[in-house]
Structures are given as structure tokens and as C-alpha cells.
Amino acid sequence: MGSARAELLRKVAEAVAVMPADPVTRVAVDGVDGAGKTWFANELGGVLESMGRSVIRASVDGFHNPKAIRYRRGRNSPEGFFYDSYDYAQLEAALLAPLSPGGNRQYRVAVFDHVTDCPVDAPVRVAAPGDILLLDGIFLDRPELRGRWDYSIFLEVAFAVSVPRGAQRDGSSPDPGAPGNRRYVEGQKLYLATCKPRRFASIVIDHGDLNAPRVVATRGDRVP
After folding, report:
1. Which residues span the domain enclosing 149?
2. Mean of per-residue pLDDT scores for the chain
3. Mean pLDDT in residue range 104-128
4. Which of 88, 135, 148, 151 is the most exposed place for a label (fewest CB within 10 A)?
């Protein structure tokens, strides 16, 4: 890990660590596909654990809708990608509500496997007061989720960078304009235009250069 990356992760961890936990500090790591969300969340979790904090790691990908719902607007529909990919009611019931003020702290980190298109029987765990939830995923600053985060991170990456990154992972085309990428690129543009995650995130990080990420804005700044 480069020194610039390590320093930024340390600063973000320090900001998260001082957030009040009631009973859990809930942190979102948002960004488009290929932004490096999982990697960032895993590294941030490691820094927090080195500071003596207990971390709950989860991904919105454990809360997909079944294929019949995800593709009901058409297999290539950007609107379908944005509106129908995830079961937010299940995300709320299984993970977010239990870890929110007044919740019982009994949570599950996944309910559905989109690869097998089947529910999963993830165990029920009990969070301890003071734990930190790190949830990574796309579309996390939607209006219906915004109020659930004590701290939200938006990783900003141009599609010219994020799409080739994703292609290395899943074997898809590295061209953002390829027909096979239309559903995902245009669906995420719809999210960026309608939900304006840069405006609502606690911190916006330019994650285009993985070795030298930099803070673009923090909450309170005027972010267009």
C-alpha cells in the first residue's frame, strides 16, 4: 500500500472512529461499478481493527432481487438496473434496521445469491454496542437509504477508468460504450443524475489512481 493511500485511509478511519455509535456506527462505501469499493472498505476495516474497533463487513450484493425482478424491464434496461437490482426492504429488515437506533442488533449480512438466483441462509449474528458496519455497494446514497448512514464515502472514478477495472474482474468489455455495458453505465449515470451522491456524501474521494487517492470534498463543502 502506498504512503498516500495509507495516510488517506488513516484519516478516514479516524473520522469514522469518532462518530457516535447508537448502537452501531453505520458507514456506506458508495461508487460506480469498478470504483474499488470492496477493496477500499476491506482496507478501511483493517485500519479500524488495528485501532481496536470491531467491524461488521457487508455488501449490498447480498441483497439482490431475483432475476425475474431484476430483468422485468428488459435485460439491457438501464432503468431496470437502477430501480430493480436490489431488495431494499430486505436490506432494511435484515441489516440496517437491527443496527439502527432502537434496533435489536440481530442482523444478517446477506439474504440472496444473485449467481444461483436463490435465497441464502446466512446466520443471524448479534452486534456489540460500538461496532462499525462497513457496507459497500452501488446506489447507496439513494434517498430511501440516506438517513441510515452515520458516515458515507463516495469513491469518484470516471467510467473510462472504472469500466476497464470491472472488465479485468469479470471479463466484460473494457469499452464504456460497448452495447453490453449500456445497462450498467447508463443505469449508474441515472443514479448520479437523480440522487447526486457527491452532494450528500460525508466525504468524496477521487479513487481514479488507487495508489494516490485524494479527498475532493467533505460534507459542508459546496459540491456540484
Report:
1. 3-218
2. 95
3. 97
4. 88
pTM: 0.95
* Per-residue burial over 27-46, b = 16 or more CB atoms within 10 Å of its CB, e = otherwise: bbbbbbbbbbbeebbebbbe
pLDDT at 223 over 50: no
Q: For 54-75, what is each residue's pLDDT tens digit? A: 999 999 999 999 999 999 999 9
Q: Answer whether residue 223 is part of any domain.
A: no
Q: What share of the chain is helix, strand, coil (3-state, %, to 5)?
A: 40, 20, 40
C-alpha cell at 136: 459497500
CATH number, position 138? 3.40.50.300
- Could you give the CA distance from residue 149 to residue 130 in angstroms, rounded to a whole number? 15
CA distance to 65, 76, 83, 117, 193, per residue, from 70 (Å): 6, 10, 8, 11, 21
Cis check for the bond before 23: say yes or no (omega within 30 of 0).
yes
